[in-house]
Amino acid sequence: MSEYKFQQVFYRAITPLHVGCGQDVGVVDLPIFRERTTGYPMIPGSGIRGTLRDRFEVKDDAEAKALTRRLFGSDQQNEISAGCISVLDARILLFPVRSVPKVFVWITCPFVIGRYSDDTSHFLGQKPALDEIKAPPDEDHYLGVMNGPSPLWLEEFPFHRNDLAWSWKGGLDGIDAGRVVLVADSVFDYFVRHATIITQHNRLTSAKTVEGGMLFSVEAVPPEAVFYAFIGCTSERTASETRMSREEALKSLRKKLTGEEKGTETYLSLGGDESTGLGVTRMAWVG
């Protein structure tokens, strides 16, 4: 994808986030979307792209519609033109877990940090400034700041601080390094599978009883979860001499969403159940 110019973005859940994958025969009727290979929560790029396009289409004027077509492509069957934006899937980076004595902490693991570093290097051409993981923790320990508590309780499980200090240096505003801890890959896998939010829903009849077959469960990623992704732009796909370059397209996208060419954040509604407050997400641009 060398013809694309990418920028890194982070998505931080403000309210529970339900990006569903349809009905399932498992314990949860409506589970969240997960990576097939790892089982980690993710946000498909197609859903993010659709939300971004909706934000562009709020203004019903000719100029806004023209910019939407140039960036996202035409949605008319008789006017087929491709857009110049590539929105990649968002991958989990920091997962919030209830904790004592810190109320909650963000957990991550060597596999996630390594993948994040590799992805950033590939799409941006440089590795992120991260603290070196000198040795991965075992299943009973965690890596964190030097003065971190020991034990640190994650849900009902105690973890002892490793003698090797490790500190989050991800450069994301609002993330307290003292709340970010590195756990073993297997521990991270357990929590992202079993520490999500499960709520029961039903539909009532006029007699205020549960309608038959309408009791079901819905899974959501908890607030404060942080995902990372990349958004890229290529030159506008037209033969016109006034076509936008990939840099101009990226600037137009960012300015429209944040209000400034170098704006840093905007708020989106991702996933389902928007009408009940789910899916409010802070989108932060880096660089």
Structure description:
The protein is an alpha+beta fold and 287 residues long. It has one domain (5-286). The chain is 21% helix and 26% strand. It is built from 5 helices and 14 strands. It has helices spanning 45-56, 62-72, 110-124, 185-194, 246-258, and strands at residues 5-13, 42-43, 85-87, 90-100, 103-108, 141-142, 152-154, 157-161, 180-182, 197-201, 216-220, 226-233, 265-269, 280-286. The strands form 2 sheets. Strands 1, 2, 3, 4, 5, 6, 7, 8, 9, 12, 13 and 14 form a 12-stranded mixed beta sheet that branches. Strands 10-11 form a two-stranded antiparallel ribbon. The protein is globular and about 65 Å long. The two termini are 20 Å apart.
